[in-house]
Each structure stands twice: as structure tokens, then as C-alpha cells.
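Box 3.1. Reading complex inputs
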Amino acid sequence: MPADHSFISVGGLAKHFGGIHAVQDLSFGLDRREIVGLIGPNGSGKTTTINMLTGVLRPDDGTIAVDGVDMARSPAHHFARSGIARTFQVPRLFRRMTVMENLMVPALSDPSERRASATLRAREILAFLRLDHLADDYARALSGGQQKLLELGRALMLKPRLLLLDEPFAGVHPRLLEQIIDHIRSLNRDGHTIVVVDHNLEAIQSVVSRTIVMTRGRKIADGAVAEVLQDPEVVRAYTGARAKQ
Amino acid sequence: MRPMPRLSFSHAVQALLLAVAVLLPLVVGAYWTHVGAIAWYYALLAASWALLAGYAGQFSFAHMAFAALGGYASALFVEKLGLPLPLAIILALFLAMVMGALIAALVLRLSGPYLALFTLAISEIFRLVLVAEDEITRGMLGLEVPGFFPGSSDRPYYYLGLALVVLCVLGMNMLLSTRVGLFLRAIREDEGAARTSGIDTTRYKILVFVVTSGIAALAGTYYGHFIGILTPNIAILPEMGLVIAMAVIGGIESLPGAVIGAVVVYLLSESLRSYGEWRFVLLGLVLILVQRFAQNGLFPFIERLGRKQRPAPALKAAPVPANSVEDGHAG
Amino acid sequence: MSYFFLLTVNGLVIGLIYALIAAGLTLVFSVLKVVNFGHGTLYMLGGYASYYIIQWLGVPPLLGVVGAMVLLFLFGIAFERLVIAPMYTDKVERKDEYAIIVTFGLTILLSNLGLVVFGPFAKSPPAFMTGALVAGPLILPYDRLIAAVVAVLLLAGLTLFLKKTSLGQALDAVSQSRESAAVIGINPQRMYTIAFGLGSALAGGAGALIAPIFSLSPSMGELPVVQAFIIIVIGGMGSVGGSIIGGILLGLVQGLGVGYLPDPNRALAYTQAFGALLLVVTLLVRPTGLFGRSHLRLE
């Protein structure tokens, strides 16, 4: 069935730092309720892309249309308020605030949200992530795995339509990995559109239906996971990168 | 989110200190009433700086410049423009808040030592202009400022200062108990993460600068009309250092702590006057020690002795029910 | 014309001293990522150290400079170990804040200690060499000439040290990336200590050099340290070369400014304000400064 990509449409996105082209001429679209993987060897521009999709970096060129409106040059908080939420590779929690406070911040950034309803939602999410017993602990006291989950919880408090997960599987205990995969599937069932950036191809394969491959700032493949992974150019990009190391 | 603050040891202590403060001038002589009135000047500055630097993480060295701006503007509006005093004060505060917003806009992309150096430079420029343009400001000779109250007693000033401190601290605490307080702390913790959580950090940074520069200007106005004379020396770096020391020693993330720090430091420095500069040597030493061993200041340290603690931030062994997340993670 | 020349030469001498102070400050910042707000008091201590060494040991004045530098090096190491080193562990929560406050506390402590121990009245150590160099329109007291020459030697030595010796290169490595340096076997903590010691020694040396020229007082560091802040921002906060050039430029500007602006009160205030204005403009327009390479969270 042809995808209409009307939810998110990225066209000609580009970003360079000094002489380095981190991202060049990147175009792709996302439909509602898709789970899409974004993979590629180190330095391929994946995180830069996520940063542009969340307003953390300003693209030098190109458009990012959300429901038809170009947001490429909007500030980060606009993206968040428009329902585009992300997690960071290394969790950037508010360390000297409690778990509960960490969750309240994104919720209350919506001026129409009241404390009571935000608290309720926060408790629901804590239950979903099985972190409820930690509600009043400082974020920095959490273990690495718990911090990753809280990162996810914080993103969910924004009532996002699009979730961008940057390396959700990185450095994670195998049992926690299973849980995270479960969480992602269940979030998708609830209607979230999700993009997962990661190096763990096995984990990615078990959640996504479609994957985009980037190398050296460009998109080289976009399609069903099994096909993409057999694409000779993709294989070259990965083995080429590995050979260099 | 947080339950309404209930009456606690900390509140009891603060209420007691407030009662002492109210009764003090009736018990001590004119000299100490005068000292107390000056202490309120520093208390306003320390508390507002604690909000700016401790809560919102904006380590500004321009705070005294706003005090000077408030004092000089109010005095000059009366003297040169002939405005009635209340209007002059309001205009001076307004001017300071506008300048606060401007500075905030300029320092948006700066943090840490860059922010400190930038605001230090701004403060120096302003002070030097005050020194240079002595035809208007009377420079180092001092600008004479009319008093608020008739008569020569310091008591009305003391109570005015106390009232200002109480009102400003209550006001700031009210602000902090709203979501704005939460956002300011988030900005201090990680500004980038705050932005991706939907906070317009620009707006809140400007807000906190506007509020605190307004209070600093209020302090400067109070001081000017109380002491009766203003010189650019209220904005020299050692004065800023004194306010920082007061806030840090008292409690940089606690407004009542900063007030108490200011009062204690100033009272001590006055009572130790006979020791000359040794009292400031002591101040420097105490500042270093407090930072080294009690980074949140002495007042919160003492507070904790009296009330039930939150789970300590370091190493809480979380119970591990069968289906919950395990501690630890792979490599 | 000869007035101009005179002002330029004097500005150059002052500029070289500024450059020395700024070089020390920049060394500490580039390696430790800390702005030492107490740098001015180290300069002051160096001046007094030199004075007392000359007085009590009867050595020639230039040895007083050397002695001051050695003493300040030791002091710097002690302060770094006792007060700054805890910053690297997780005992300290807000690291930027800690560094600013603790070095500020050092300023308060030392400058007031200076007042009680040394007294508020100015002291003058003996001149390096009496008399002056007279060459055409130029009259340059030998003190200033020697101070300038020694400053140049120290700055050149510092640059060579950083580029050519293995210790210097280790410091440079840590300033660029502490993790990478650790990976190749350099101990960052040791480098921090050495850098702080060296930075303090440079400040102390500058104070000792200026002492016979302008005499000593406990507050003598207040103005120069602000100039040093200005210089390191303009020159680029990690760059020793930048602080050298910035120091000389600022010295020249100030020398000429004070000489040529009509109203003396205004002249002094506005030449100082000009430097501060340069700092402000630099941070707004080109935050890495003219030559800067390492910067800290300038988002």
C-alpha cells in the first residue's frame, strides 16, 4: 500500500560543521503508527538527524514538515510542544530533582495542563515503566537502566505523537532490553509513531518494520528490514566501516 | 506535586528569627539598629542573587550594578527631573527590570565562567561610567539622596527594610512554588534537556533576571534613601563578592538561608570591627570551607538536623520485586 | 611625536606584564577549565614575596623575582591539591560554581590577609637597576626595560616549554581532551596540579617584576586581574599566544588612551571601561576569541 508520508516529511535536510558534511540531502517520510529504524555505522549522521528533528540543531538546508507545516527552523521547545519527543543516548536527566519532578517538567510545560492531571499521568507512566517505588528518589540515585527508563518516561509525558529514541538499547542489561522492546511495541500499539536509532541490529529487527540506513551523512537505503540488510551498498557501508577499525 | 509545606522545624526557626528581628530595635541601641537596617540591604541582595544563581543557575556578577542603578536612578530622577519620590522609585525599578531583560537576552548563550566574566565586565562598565560622569553623578564625592522619613531615627528604615525582605522572600518563594520554580531548576540542571522537554528557556531566563534585578534595584533604592549618600563603590567587585559569600554561606538554594547568611555575616563583620581586616580573612576562609564541606550552605545543613530526611541522594538500595527493573546494567 | 613614542613604549611594557598575568590565567583555564578569580592576589603575593626575599636574604632584586616564582609555584600546588582537587570527585555537585566561589574566597582571604600582614601602606623594593635608558626622544627607566625583557623571556620560555618539552605537551594534551590524554598514559590530576602551580608562578613573577616600578600594596592585583580576564576572553580562553598578543594590545590601548584623552578622570575610567567593553563584544560576536580553541559549554 503506498505510504502517503503525510505525518512527517523531511526534504533535502543538510548540516555541516566546518568542512564536515554531517548530513547531506536527506529526505524521507513517516506515517502515523510506523516504527522505523535508523541505522548506520558510526559517524553516519544519525544523531545529527535526530537533533535536527527535535530542534536541537538548526539545519543548514532543507525542510521538516510536521502535518504539512515546516518546522525546520523552530526552536527545540516548539518541537517538544508539537508532540515530538526524544530520548538521549546518554540520559540527560535533571539529576538533582526527583523522579516525579523529572516527569512533571515536560507535562507542565503545557500551560493548560494542571498539576493534578499531570501527577496522575506521571503515576501511570511510572507504573507502566515499573519505577513507581522510586518516585521520590533523586534522579542521580537511579541505576543506569532505571535512568534510561526515566528518560523514556520523560519523553512520554509530552503526550508525543512521534518518539525518537536515540540508542535505547545501548549498554543495557539483557533482561532490561527485553522490557524496553516490550515497552516500544506496546507504545506503538497505543498509537505512537516511533523512530529507533541504534547499533543493536538484532534488537532493531525485532521491533521495526521498516528501516532507513545512513552512511557518511547520506541515506543509502529505505525499506523493509530484511531487504535493506541484504542491500550490497548497506553491507559495504558496514563492513567498510568495520574494516577501518 | 509537592505537598503544601507544612509547619516544620525550619519554619519554626524562621518564625522565631523573624520575631527576634521585629523586637530587636526595641532592645538594642541606635548603633545596632543602624547595623540591622544595613543588613536588610544585603539580605535583599543575597536572597535575590540566590534565586538567580542558586536556583536558576545564572551566576551573574552584575547584581550590584543593578543595585547601583536603582539607587542612582531613583535619586537622579528626583534631583534632575523633579519627579515625586514614589514615581521616581517606580521608574527606577522599571528601568532596572528592562536592563535586566536586556542583559538576560545578551547572556542567553553563555554559562559558567563566561557568564560570570561577561556580567562582571558589564558591571565594571556601568560603575566606571558612574565614576566618569561625575558632573551628573558627583562620582566619588557621593550623590546626596533625600531620606524617606523625617527625623534622624533609623528605626523606620529598619522596619521598612525588614518588611521589604519579608515581602520579597515571600514573593520569590511563591514564584518558586509554581511550575516556574520547577522550570528554573530544570534549566539549571540541564538547559538542553529542559528545552527538549518543552520549556522555553529563553523566556524563563529573562524572567528570572527581570525579577532579581528588580529586587536588587529595590535594595539599592532603599540603601540610597537610608544612608543618604551614594557612591560608585557600592558596585565594586569586593561588594559583589560579599553578597556571594553571604548567599553561599547561608544557603545558595534557600532564600531564607541566604537572608540568614547575609544577616549573620554582616552582624559578625560589624561586631568584629576591632579586629580590622582579620574579619574578612575569616570570611574568605569560611567561604572556602563551606563550599568545600557543605556546598548547599549552612542553613540547609542545620535544617536537616531537625526534620525527617528525604532518601539520601547517594546509594539507595532499591527493593527488587520479582517483576521490576534490576539494578545495574551491562557494560 | 615623541610623546606618542613614549606612551607606546610604556604601554608595551605594561602590556607585556599583562600578557604574563594573562598567560598564567589562560594556562590554568585551558588545562583545568577553571577561571581562577583569585589570580590577582597571586600576583600581589608574588610582589610581596620578592620584596621580603630581597630584604631578608639580601639577594639581588632579580633573584627576588625567581624566589617569588618558586614560592608561588609551591603555593599554587598546595591550593590546587587542598581546595580544587576535590572538585573532580563527585563530592562536589556544581563544579563551575564551586570553582568560581572557591577562587573568589581565595581572593577575599589573601587580599585581606595581605592588608593585615603587610599593612596598607605602599612598599617599594629596590630597583633592578637604577637609571634610565636615554635614546633620542625616549627615556625608559632601566627597571621597566628589565621588566619587559624578563617578561619576554618568560613568555618565550613558556611557549617553548609548551611546544617542545614532553611535560608541556602533556599539559597541552590534557587541555585538549582529558580523556584522550588519560588513555595515552598521562595523569590528568597531576597535570592540573602542575598547571595551577605554573600559572601561579607566572602571576607571582609578574607581580615581582612590577614591584620596583609601581610599588606594592595589598590591592594591587584588583585592576590587573580584570585586565587579565579581558585579555583571555579577547585572545581566546585556551590560547597562550592569544593572551600574549591580547595583553600587549590592551597595554598599548590603555597607555595611549590615558595619554591622549583630555579629561584625566574620564580618561582613566573610560580606558578601563573600553577593555571591559571589548570583553563584552567578544563574547557576543566571537565567543572563542581571536585565537581560542577550547571552550566550555558555549551552546
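In summary: The first helix of chain A runs from residue 46 to 53.
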